[in-house]
Amino acid sequence: MKDNDSAVIDGFYADPDLIFSEKDNCFYLYPTTDGKLNWQGTYFECFSSKDLIDWEKKGIILDLTKDVSWAIDKAWAPSAIEKKIDNEYHYFFYFCAEQKIGVATSTSPFSGFKDKGTPLITDKYRDPSIDTGQEIDPYVFHDKKNDSYYLFWGNMYLARAELNSDMVSIKEESIAYITPNDGSFREAVSVFYRKDRYYYIWSENDTRHPDYRLRYGYNFSIEDPLIIPKDNVVLEKYEALNILATGHCDVINKPNSDEFYLFYHQFSLQDGQLWNDESGYHRELQKKILCFDDDGAIKPINHSI
Q1: Which residues contact 131 (CB under 8 A, 6 or more apart)?
Q2: How high is the pLDDT of residue 6?
Q3: Lowest-pLDDT range, 30-39, 88-97, 147-156, 169-178?
Q4: Dihedral of the CA atoms 53, 33, 136, 298 (nearest 10)?
C-alpha cells in the first residue's frame, strides 16, 4: 500500500483518532467500531503502526458493558492523548457513550484503561444559545506553545475548555463556544498545529447523508476567533467512484517532518448498492495526504489521484 492509498484497516470502522507515542515510537489508531444498527456499538478497539501503512489490531481497550458504570451503548468517536507526568507516560482516552463524554486513563496506550466513574461532559455544558445538539465527538489537543491541554466537543455547536492538570476534569470558567460562523458546522472537530496557525477541520451534514463532508478554518492563537476561508471544503463525495459521506477526520503529523495525513471515514457503494440510511452504519476508514498552499491554505483532496 502506498502512502496515499485510501484503505486503512479491514472492516467497518469510523471516527478515527490517532496519536504518535513517544514512549513506543509508533502510531496508535482509535476508531469507532461500526456496523451496528443505530450506532449501538459497545466497545472500542486499538490498532498500532510504525509507518501509518501496516496496522496491527491490539484488541478491545474499553468495553462499556464491563468497564463503564454509567453507560452501556453508543460507544462513539474517541480521542486519546499521551502525556508524560513525573517521568512516566500516561494515556487519556476520551469517548462518547449515550450522548455524554467520558474519560478513561492508563499507563499503556492499548490496555488497562480505567473509567473515571462519571461522565466528564454532559448537557450541563451545552451551548445555552441552542436548544438542540448532543454532547459528543470529543477532541483533545495539546497546545505546545503554552503547554496547555484543551478538550473540544459538540454536535450542532462547538465548545472548547481547558483541561486541568489531572486531565480528567475541565476548568469550567474556561468554557467557550466557538461554533464556526458560516453555518456549516455539524460535529466532529479535529485540531492540529502547523507552522504559524491552528487548523480546525469539522464535518458538515449528517453522517448518514451522501453529502457528509469536511470543511476547515484556522486561527493564530487557540483563543482567537476562527477565520473561515472562502473556499474551505477539504473533502467531499466523489460519485464517479461511488465514494460518499466523507467526514469525521483526524490529522496526524509524522514526527520531525512536514508530512500530514488525513484519516477519515466514508461509505463506498459496491456492486450496484443504493444509498440508504443504513449506509451510515457501515463506514470504512480511509487515508489521504493532506497538502497546503504556500500561504497555508489546505488544498482540497482529489479522490481521482
Answers
A1: none
A2: 58
A3: 30-39
A4: 20
pLDDT at res. 267:
86
How many Å apart are CA 252 and CA 110, to the nearest integer?
18
**In degrees to the nearest 10, what's the CA dihedral of 81, 165, 139, 231?**
-110
pTM here is 0.96
Q: Report whether pLDDT(2) > 60.
A: no
Cell 500530514 belongs to 260
Q: What does the alpha-carbon distance between residue 185 and residue 201 come to, in Å, rounded to a whole number?
A: 10
Question: Where are the domains positioned within the chain?
Answer: 13-290
Confidence of residue 270 (pLDDT cuts 50, 70, 90): low
Q: Which of 75, 178, 191, 101 is nearest to 140 (CA)?
A: 191
CATH code of 13-290, in short, is 2.115.10.20
Of the candidates 225, 198, 229, which has an alpha carbon nearest to the alpha carbon of residue 214? 229
Distance CA 198, CA 220 (A): 6
